[in-house]
Specification:
Layout (H helix, E strand, L loop, with lengths): L4 E5 L3 H13 L3 E5 L2 H10 L4 E5 L7 H9 L9 E4 L4
Parallel strand pairs: 1-2, 1-3, 3-4
Helix pairs in contact: 2-3
């Protein structure tokens, strides 16, 4: 079995970079998306073992992106962890 594939979805480049570096250092394959639309595009093309989703993004919110990803074939049971840096 290959590396587990994780999709990081966040509009903040610094957050994506830190999370990417941390996960890669633990042996995961990491793909990045900068917003909900890019997330959906990537999820249409490949399957992920986990998606880390920012909630507050411009355009499409993380909540809406999660709903749409869960409707895609093969992603009905993909775990999605919602994250936010908001207080």
């Amino acid at each position: 079995m290959g590396k587990k594939k994780i999709l990081i979805v966040d509009d903040n480049l610094l957050i994506r970079t830190i999370t990417n570096d941390l996960l890669k250092s633990q042996g995961y394959e990491v793909i990045e998306a900068c917003d909900g639309n890019e997330c959906i595009d990537k999820a249409r093309k490949e399957l992920f073992d986990l998606i880390l989703m920012d909630i507050n993004m411009p355009g499409m919110s993380g909540i809406e992106a999660m709903k749409r990803v869960n409707k895609l074939e093969g992603h009905e049971k993909t775990p999605i962890i919602a994250l936010t840096a908001s207080i």
